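Homework-ish question, so no full write-ups if that breaks the rules, but can someone show me the predicted structure for this set?
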Amino acid sequence: MTNQSNSRDVWVFIEQEEGVIADVSLELLAKAQELAGTLDSQVCGLMCGYQVEDLAETVIHHGADRVLWADHPELEMYRTLPYAKVTTKLVQEQQPYILIFGATAIGRDLAPRVASASRAGLTADCTDLQIGDYTSKKDKRTYNDLLLQIRPAFGGNIIATIINPKMHPQMATVREGVMRRQEPDVTRQGSVEKIEPTFDESDLALRILSRETRESEINLKDSPIIVSGGGGVDSEESFELVRELAHVLGGEVGASRAAVDAGLVSREHQVGQTGTTVRPRLYIAAGISGAVQHRAGMDESAKIIAINTDPNAPIFEIAHYKIVGDLTEVIPMMIRALREKAK
Amino acid sequence: MSSARTYNSIVLVKQVPDTKNITGDVMKDDGTMNRSALPAVFNPEDLNALEMALRVREQHGGQVTVMTMGPPQAAEVLRESLYRGADQVVLISDRKFAGADTLATSYALTCAVQKQGDYDLIFCGRQAIDGDTAQVGPQTAEKLGIPQITYAETVVDLEGDELVVERALPLGKELVKCMLPCLLTVVSTANQPRPASARKRIEYKLAATPLEYRSLLKKWPEFGTEEALDAYLEARDMKLPVWSAADVGIQDGNIGLAGSPTQVYKVNFVVLETAESKEVSADQEGIAALLEELIQEYIVG
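A: Not a homework solution, just the prediction itself:
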């Protein structure tokens, strides 16, 4: 939309549903604060909803200096067109330097629409954001303080760093769980500006007839211990061992894509490039070969135990503890040892 | 046919490198990709999008047009679409498109869709397995000025100028009603795409774009010249159209590298980091010692 804007502010789209802010938005506020610190600028949280003013304080406590809050009954539930209209208008009027969204179903629906309307570059599914300089080889021009948007590509086989040197805002969606959120600082002060948008008929071309959502059964990314099963877990009974070990350890059950595709466990449990990114204190990979797609979602775990019958399985290259053996024998030994300790 | 009117669909598809089956020789030592070592496939969720469009046609009538933007060899996914029942196909191909990011791609696709015109529904796969961005569908919808329904799983109802669709959300479902025309991005759980029909495979065996003539002449030297081959295919309705940037009315500066705000700054090949690791023997003593260590370090317990 613009070649250079004067603002250096970092905006975060604050995703809320039914008055609850998405975890990823709070994670992004912490990252935005870090980026704004480097840029010597401010963090602004942009929130859409209906009568959710109370949330503005939470946004400030988690790192925003300023909250822009669009209030309208048509914004009560997320819909592409009204949300995109509000966001695009604010972006065009105030020209933030950076605008980031969670790479959620909502963020990935909204961000491309806003980027297209603003003719801004957008990078999907980033796993890290940094500030850095870039010198164009073509014209030798140096662009200072660009947003370096880092993401896995080609099924996780490469890590690409993407920049938008000329067109601002620099936009990105960021994976859930990869940034660490801060403890709220209740003494933090900030400003709140309420916006009252208007909509015409074309903005309301889509209506929600019904929505059924269920509570997530699991919380993989916040669990300190995860026991995951993969393609080497070849039966329901064997997967039951994975569940039992997770239970004894007080952790969650994870899985690689192979186990999910085999129908042993629901997709919500999938760890990796196309699943959840986790960094627990302990990750036990049982019968997981360690394809790059899986490793991308768990290789920052503090301790990794890998159990595999194949001594050459790639998972062993990132494991802290290697157990070459059959998981149907090894897991029962682990359960037994833990039960003994508990006595 | 259950309703009074018919519905024309455009399906936007992509040929992608098969990133699920990457082997060692694909990644070069310098960290770049040897793309020619990767088999090219029909992007999986684009097959779900095509299937959804074909089912709409079967129920309501209308035409299904499949478009892809890509190099000459992308004509393969167009043939695959014909084998599955597409009525017509278009290859959007031009050297000027090289280096396009999602914004520039959506601009080119928008121009092509506008040239085609007369559509009620546009279907895309949710995302392509090479970039996993899921951006081109929504960006194309925005440029066309039409609503989008992402994560579409089921067309529940289609009547008059309104469409009812069930969306697959991460934790649930959403039923939405939308005015036509609109763009849908389709998820893999939407349907089981039909296989290529053996009869159509034979019917469209010769279907080719002019960009493929040179290599076809090596296979079929009996045609002699590109002109002769062209006349032969044209007469049999087997000449697949190719639209260039100029054909779809594209303004330079909006496409290719110049039209792409994002650029790749650097690429790192993912290397396995060898952690400091211990071998643990797979017996009760070994396992017990390991757990004891983890308890001592407050990792477990």
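Now go work out the reasoning yourself. Hint: The helical segments of chain A are 23-39, 55-61, 80-94, 105-118, 236-249, 257-261, 292-295, 327-342.
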